[in-house]
Amino acid sequence: MTDDKITIDDVAKALGISKTTVSRAISGKGRVGNSTRAKVMEFIEKHNYRPNVMARALAQQRTFNIGVVWPCDYNAVDLPFFQRCMIGMSEITSSFGYDIVVSLIAGDDLSSLKRIIENHKVDGVVLTRTMVNDTPAMYLKESGVPFVAIGKTDDPDIITVDNDNLGACKELTSILLAKGLRKLALIGGSTNHIITRTRYEGFVDAFESMGLEVDQNLVYLDIENNIKIGGIIKTLLKKNIDGVICMDDSIAGEVISRCRDEHIRIPDDLRVASFYNSSLLESTVPSVTSLNFNDRNLGAEAARTLLAIIAGENAQSKMLKNYEVILKESTK
Amino acid sequence: MTDDKITIDDVAKALGISKTTVSRAISGKGRVGNSTRAKVMEFIEKHNYRPNVMARALAQQRTFNIGVVWPCDYNAVDLPFFQRCMIGMSEITSSFGYDIVVSLIAGDDLSSLKRIIENHKVDGVVLTRTMVNDTPAMYLKESGVPFVAIGKTDDPDIITVDNDNLGACKELTSILLAKGLRKLALIGGSTNHIITRTRYEGFVDAFESMGLEVDQNLVYLDIENNIKIGGIIKTLLKKNIDGVICMDDSIAGEVISRCRDEHIRIPDDLRVASFYNSSLLESTVPSVTSLNFNDRNLGAEAARTLLAIIAGENAQSKMLKNYEVILKESTK
DNA sequence: TTGTAGGCGTTATCAG
DNA sequence: CTGATAACGCCTACAA
């Protein structure tokens, strides 16, 4: 039962045939007699034979692993986005017999990424976000390893998979504008992240397509620490605003809390919406209007694309259009 | 600069010595002349030579990967716990030249775990939680692969690393009892997870050590879905309770929201505390009394232990004592 | 259809 | 201290 270390050679000898034939029977490459194949399959099934992946990796220079680059800045640590993406990726990779090697990168330290690339531990990489000065992307590009980035990028050589953040943010903003709101504030994270810029663009587009102009005094970007939000809210209130759009739900949660401190009623005194929704917002009161994306599906699509590239097919960048605008109490 | 496919043989030939010597110079095993070693080191530095891990893995039957089993039930998906643990593990494994292969397992489907084990893709495994019917643990034990579990277990053969959940939960409960609260409710998740049982034990211990008895009518376990919490709160309010202890902050957040619905003031009408704290609770109002553990450190310790086992040292189970009881507004 | 032999890049063994 | 040579387990021309 626990014949653990049985090799292809053992199989061959036991069956009185050559390793080559066994190999072919298993891989399906090359012609093998039906009866022979059946014999082999039955035997390996019975004895629970598994080809040694390391040996195969060495022989055909493939690892059947993909790398996933996972940012772990202070902010990203608690976001469920990456976890959800990974689940989607895992579903796809699993079904292709691939496994996932994670590479956590903090700040500019690419050493863990370099290690898995230089050591040939992966056949390709998924980058889970894009940045303005994207050192990981540049490194990967230079290294020649197949990779896919989740998020937008300027570089046409890089294959990306992304949600339609621009369209979604524009739509949500438009809805608020259509309600007659005009003095809308925007609070968002690091402008080093492309997604922050895209969300901002969507916000601006909504204004422009209605012939309105964004008041830059109401835009707060690079707010990487929720501590600052209390002050921002106080400042904003003096400016007599109609509503606040938060780029993610962590910011939204903080905004709601600080409003409560200031005895600001939502939505009566102020409307609040978020460009990203996760369970963080689930139990807030009032419930928050937000955008809902399918992160899992995004990850799955990224993995699918990467595997296609690895298989030699020429894949193209994709934009997933399915998102939901969830209108809740906070903007009534 | 981009001499990517340079092998040990290339190094040997370029230096006019044998592969063996180069190998020894790099690994440090076996005696090599100092001048020779220096030459080798200089050369590989300059030409950026990296030993092929796959070849090494094949030769010495080691992969320099560890597997991390990551549950992805509906509940676990958004918990930051696993992510934080993994960051801690990654810090340690990285410093030993190891990488992390994740195995997401949903429900009883062990296929991804089996794949990485049977394919010899990892040298050991970290199990990130323990269960009552722990099929992953049993499988690993049977397979003979070195592994460490995060969490408690009955099986003395299994090496574990865990926080002192029992002591922490007992302490927090004791503090509330010491404030004179007596009718304390408890809401928690699946009793299939050992941690739920441990937390419950801590709760009970606190009562017993004060000569009090737990009112089982106020204990709600196996609440795996926050939707039920609204009803529970309503029921509890009729029972005229003093406070609610939630096993994690997702539950706590929900409890607070539902209390607000019912116009219950916290802490005036009801005290609330949580056995686990994450950023989910960060911006709630009122701030919630809770236990604070260092998940990252927990992961690091687990990785350290696993690597020790892999290295052949005989490691022992560890309990990390450092946690914080954070007293906040919700129990004033 | 099947088998033989060589190679993938390292490490381990055993001589020198 | 150093070097051939044989594993490690699998794949793939090339032959038969």
Automatic annotation (TrEMBL), chains A, B:
InterPro entries assigned to the protein according to its UniProt record, in alphabetical order: HTH_LacI, LacI/GalR-like_sensor, Lambda_DNA-bd_dom_sf, Peripla_BP_I
PROSITE patterns (UniProt xref): HTH_LACI_2 (PS50932)
Gene3D superfamilies assigned: 3.40.50.2300, lambda repressor-like DNA-binding domains
Protein name in UniProt: Transcriptional regulator LacI family
Zinc recorded as keyword: no
Molecular-function GO terms, alphabetical: DNA-binding transcription factor activity; transcription cis-regulatory region binding
Domain HTH lacI-type stretches: 6-60
SUPFAM superfamilies tied to this protein: lambda repressor-like DNA-binding domains, Periplasmic binding protein-like I
CDD domains in the cross-refs: HTH_LacI (cd01392)
Keywords: DNA-binding, Transcription, Transcription regulation
